[in-house]
Amino acid sequence: MLEPENKQGIVYLIGAGPGDPGLLTLRGRELLAQADVVVYDRLVHPAVLDYARPEALRVFVGKASARHTLTQEEINALLIRHAQEGKRVARLKGGDPFVFGRGGEEAEACRTAGVPFVVVPGITSAIAAPAYAGIPVTHRDAASSFCVITGHEREDGKESGRRAAGQAEGRRDWARLAHAADTLIFLMGVEALPEIVARLQEHGREPETPIALVQWGTWPQQRVVSGTLADIVERVREAGLRPPAVCVVGEVVRLRGRLQWFDDPRRQPLFGKRIVVTRAREQASGLVDMLRTRGAEVLEYPTIRIEKLKDMTELDGALQSLERYAWMVVTSVNTVPVIAERLEALERDARAFAMTKVAAIGPATASILREKLGIRADFVPTEAVAEALIDQWPDREMRGKRVFLPRAREAREMLPERLRAMGAIVDVIPVYETVAMEQPETLLEDLRAGNIDAITFTASSTVKNLMQALAIGSAESNLGAYLKGVCLAAIGPVTGQTLKEYGFEPTIVAEEHTMAGLVKALESYFAKRGKGDG
Ligand code: SAH
């Protein structure tokens, strides 16, 4: 084939958005997933990197520590070198690559070197950070223009040297900037705040003009300090606010009083809460996303990993002769991808199920069945537990009927036993197993330091694995003390019962036994607690 064509490298200049991983563009995600090399800096949310392939080389050029600073020239050279080796290089930048991101310089360097590039604009912090603080940069009554201006810090959000600040100062036309637009937005402006505030007033902006600084905008640690040109310097000092922050000046800042939403605990009870997700990474993303969109800081400590069994002969056998089965019962989302994969390998498709009815344990399993196999479940019980499935079983006449039950290697026998008691012939076929993962020390440290607000348990296995790992990891085995005050949130009564068996009363047992139900339960728990604390 035309190998040489594939050898042509390329640089994707991608805006990663301001922080909240949901604010990455679809195009950005698509190109990130194709990249061989990902070059990123400090203001890119780590979850955005998960969209890159696991085998992609990740290069941090974040300049967070002065010791490890790559100059702009070194970064340019890095991008070009990889591209010239035929690699697809994703250059991920916070916000928009062409808004104070030096993306222009990187594009120029590519052009000079003859390396092709693509630009994917991103959501800039200049607009998004105020938006997440409830401040629209324009408003029919308050502002009909906005202007984005640089302060004097370096681009990674760290303070620049004093000399650089002084130098840039001399060049600025403050008389023009002060009235450039109704709303003035300063990036990299924390260090220079006293200067900015003084000059704006010197050039005719009223001391009462409202101003706000939004630190870590769109991140779970977002903080906002507001005031007037006259008092903001003092307030920022008192609050100890540091970069990165966006500074907004103008009447629109007052709107936060009415429009605050993201960092408002009354509307977003999970805002800033540190919540542990113990699910296997393969199946955690739905829960993680739901928690993140509500402003929670999610700490992923997968205690288990889902692994497909090596020997697939039993499953293949069943899939080759599906017409023998009256029912297939799917008790976990984990079985579906394995079935889809084997069906594909056997060169069969959804029509293989033409004679077979399908039962799904819950809505998540039903939805993955639709997505991966194009199959609508014939039956989903009202509660996502095996007991409900069998209690509500819709087929009255099971005598002599064959049931195909693919599932985890280790699972409860209740379901096959009760189906057999109804006269069915049940083929239990293990397709995957859950493998315990080593426990990172950091979770224990976080628990010891009292940094964790809640731990979510989405299955009994997550309770078992976490308890085991924590007990092993903690020399003092002082587990009870560490977990005191931490909200232990179980997805349903079975998982809750497992917690009890370990001596812990679940703080929450979700009424609706789904991940959405678990999130809802967490929200109402923290909403109530928020009130209680005053
Ligand atoms: N290209 C970026 C800006 C890079 S300059 C963009 O379009 O957003 C770096 C500065 O951006 C920081 O000093 C800070 O002023 C601002 N910034 C970036 N992300 C931010 C965030 N999440 N919250 C507040 N300010 C942010």
Task: Explain what this protein looks like in three dimensions.
- By secondary structure, this protein is of the alpha/beta class.
- It has four domains: 10-123, Tetrapyrrole methylase, N-terminal domain (Cobalt-precorrin-4 Transmethylase, domain 1), CATH 3.40.1010; 127-259, Methyltransferase, Cobalt-precorrin-4 Transmethylase, Domain 2 (2-Layer Sandwich); 274-303 and 437-530, Rossmann fold (3-Layer(aba) Sandwich), CATH 3.40.50; 307-434, Rossmann fold.
- It has 22 helices and 20 strands.
- It has a five-stranded parallel sheet, sandwiched between helices. A five-stranded mixed sheet has the order 6-7-10-8-9, sandwiched between helices.
- The radius of gyration is 28 Å and the shape is globular.
- Bound molecules: S-adenosyl-L-homocysteine.
- S-adenosyl-L-homocysteine binds at residues 18-19, 43, 93-96, 99-101, 124-126, 129, 153, 155, 157, 187-188, 214, 216-219, 243-246.
Biggest sheet, open or closed, and with what strands and sense? Answer: 5 strands, parallel
Give the ligands present: S-adenosyl-L-homocysteine
Major sheet strand order: 3-2-4-1-5
Task: State the helix count.
Answer: 22
- Structural class by secondary-structure content: alpha/beta
Basic shape: globular
Euclidean distance between termini CA atoms = 69 Å
Per CATH, which architecture of the largest domain?
2-Layer Sandwich
The unreliable regions are 154-169
**What oligomeric state best describes the polypeptide chains here?**
single chain
Radius of gyration: 28 Å
Number of strands: 20
The CATH topology assignment of the largest domain is: Methyltransferase, Cobalt-precorrin-4 Transmethylase, Domain 2
Mean pLDDT: 89
Tally of domains? 4
- In percent terms, what proportion of residues is strand? 15-25%
Helix content: 25-40%
